[in-house]
Amino acid sequence: MIPGKIVCPSHWTKQFDGFLSSGSHYTDQTGGEYLCLDRDPEYATEGASQQDYNGRVFYPVEAVCGSLPCPPYENGKYVSCVVCTK
């Protein structure tokens, strides 16, 4: 996973691109792990079982100028990411 990018290095294969996310939020200090969530995820349809197992909630990571260089990042915008394989 490469944060801040939407293309893979040469000779790598792009699996998907999306938005950087974290399980941590303002009051939840259990985070620390970042994941790339697919920009076009598949989802369950009405015919599928729709139960809430109270799993983890993921929050998009927003760029903050000062902690990240602006440009290329834009303040308040979601940080992109790409998942690549070799």
Describe this structure in words.
The chain is globular, with a radius of gyration of 15 Å. 0% of the residues lie in helices and 29% in strands. It has a domain at 1-32 and 56-66 and 75-86. With 86 residues, the protein is mainly beta.
Q: What percent of residues adopt helix (DSSP H or I)? A: under 10%
- Arithmetic mean of pLDDT: 84
- Taking pLDDT < 50 over at least 5 consecutive residues as the criterion, the unreliable ranges are none
Summing up helix and strand content along with how strands pair, one would put the structural category as mainly beta
The SSE string, one letter per element, is EEEEE
The overall strand count is 5
Query: What's the number of helices?
Result: 0
Taken as a percent bin, the fraction of beta residues is 25-35%
Distance between the termini: 12 Å
Oligomer: single chain
- Rg is 15 Å
The coarse silhouette is globular
The main sheet comes to: 5 strands, antiparallel
Protein name: Short-chain collagen C4
Quick rundown:
The protein has 86 residues and is mainly β.
Summarize the helices and strands and which ones pair or pack.
Blueprint: E1 2-3, E2 13-22, E3 34-38, E4 59-60, E5 80-85
Antiparallel strand pairs: 1-5, 2-3, 2-4, 2-5
Key words describing this protein structure:
86 residues; single chain
